[in-house]
């Protein structure tokens, strides 16, 4: 299942506007945000190379490494050797031990965060969730990686790679909670954010993420049906096309007393014989066009990979 930004946008915007830090975690959230601010100069060095906002890099560093500059930004493994957890074997070039900045730039480029040209709160949320993975979303649970310590999140998390525990409660500040705290500490950092919407994505509809919308599906299906029909007609006519003419001739011979009927039957057969291959070819071309158009339109809108 493929998750796209458009599928998730409403969740991010609504959660951002609705969330509040749970009082018992307020001190921990503030301390984590201050820890990120302490590393600003090093995050800025990576930001200049990648174009990613320095505080986004800092938040990822806090989430993955607890702001330890001796660890890979990819996943918190030691810089003394290449990463061994997912993603393993990074960076591929160079020799360990790695400089933190060198590895951080590789991590940003590996996840293509440097391809993002226009940052907003919801874009950052999608980048964070994609960086960590969509496993929580598949289970209908707001990601602890984004929302832990806030009113948006209650429980459920991966306790280690690929191991989900529905009752586990994250004890780490979520990335979006950190971002909001940073914006409060330094308002000049604030990114734009969309307006909340009454449209919410319920848990049942989450299973539809990454699939083509019904209209686009129907174009694909009916295009395939039409193309198949056209191909079938063309093939059948190629095999038995002479049969209609033959039937017309036989009808003329057998019903000698009904010249008018025989003549009409022969004429109909002739017309069908002349046009049926063209009808089949037209159906085939129209069907293929619908299929290609539907898939191209889907790809253009990020609905298929």
Annotate the secondary structure layout.
Blueprint: H1 5-18, H2 26-38, H3 40-50, H4 54-65, H5 100-110, H6 121-132, H7 135-138, H8 144-147, E1 157-160, E2 163-165, H9 175-185, H10 203-206, H11 214-254, H12 259-300
Antiparallel strand pairs: 1-2
Helix pairs in contact: 1-6, 2-4, 2-9, 3-4, 3-5, 4-9, 11-12
Quick overview:
With 305 residues, the chain is mostly helical. It folds into two domains: 5-206, no CATH class; 214-300. The chain contains twelve helices and two strands.
What class do helices, strands and sheet pairing give? mainly alpha
Q: How would you write the strand order of the largest sheet?
A: 1-2
Shape summary:
globular
- In total, how many beta strands? 2
Bin the helical content: 55-70%
* Quaternary form: single chain
Q: What is the number of independent domains?
A: 2
**Could you tell me the radius of gyration in angstroms?**
31 Å
Largest sheet: 2 strands, antiparallel
What does this structure look like?
Helix 2 crosses helix 9 (175-185). The chain is mainly alpha-helical. 59% of the residues lie in helices and 2% in strands. The radius of gyration is 31 Å and the shape is globular. The protein contains twelve helices and two strands; from the N terminus they run H-H-H-H-H-H-H-H-E-E-H-H-H-H. The termini are close together. The protein folds into two domains: 5-206, no CATH class; 214-300. The longest helix has 42 residues, at 259-300.
């Amino acid at each position: 299942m493929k998750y796209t930004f458009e599928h998730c946008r409403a969740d991010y915007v609504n959660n951002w506007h609705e969330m509040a830090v749970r009082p018992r975690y307020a001190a921990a959230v503030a301390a984590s945000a201050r820890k990120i601010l302490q590393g600003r100069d090093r995050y800025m060095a990576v930001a200049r190379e990648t174009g990613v906002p320095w505080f986004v890099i800092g938040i990822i560093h806090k989430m993955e490494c607890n702001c330890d500059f001796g660890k890979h930004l990819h996943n918190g493994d030691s810089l003394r050797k290449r990463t061994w957890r997912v993603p393993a074997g990074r960076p591929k070039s160079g020799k360990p031990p790695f400089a933190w900045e060198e590895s951080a730039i590789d991590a940003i480029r590996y996840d293509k965060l440097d391809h993002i040209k226009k940052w907003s709160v919801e874009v950052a949320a999608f980048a964070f969730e994609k960086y960590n993975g969509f496993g929580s979303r598949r289970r209908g649970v707001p990601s602890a990686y984004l929302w832990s310590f806030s009113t948006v999140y209650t429980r459920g998390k991966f306790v280690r790679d690929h191991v989900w525990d529905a009752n586990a409660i994250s004890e780490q500040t979520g990335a979006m909670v950190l971002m909001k705290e940073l914006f409060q500490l330094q308002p000049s950092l604030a990114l734009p954010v969309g307006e909340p919407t009454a449209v919410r994505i319920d848990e049942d509809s989450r299973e539809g993420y990454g699939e083509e919308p019904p209209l686009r599906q129907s174009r694909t299906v009916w295009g395939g049906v039409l193309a198949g029909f056209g191909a079938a007609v063309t093939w059948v006519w190629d095999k038995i096309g002479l049969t209609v003419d033959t039937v017309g001739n036989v009808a003329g011979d057998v019903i000698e007393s009904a010249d008018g009927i025989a003549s009409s039957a022969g004429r109909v057969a002739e017309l069908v014989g002349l046009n049926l291959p063209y009808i089949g070819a037209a159906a085939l071309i129209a069907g293929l066009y619908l299929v290609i158009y539907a898939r191209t339109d889907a790809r253009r809108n990020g609905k298929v990979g």
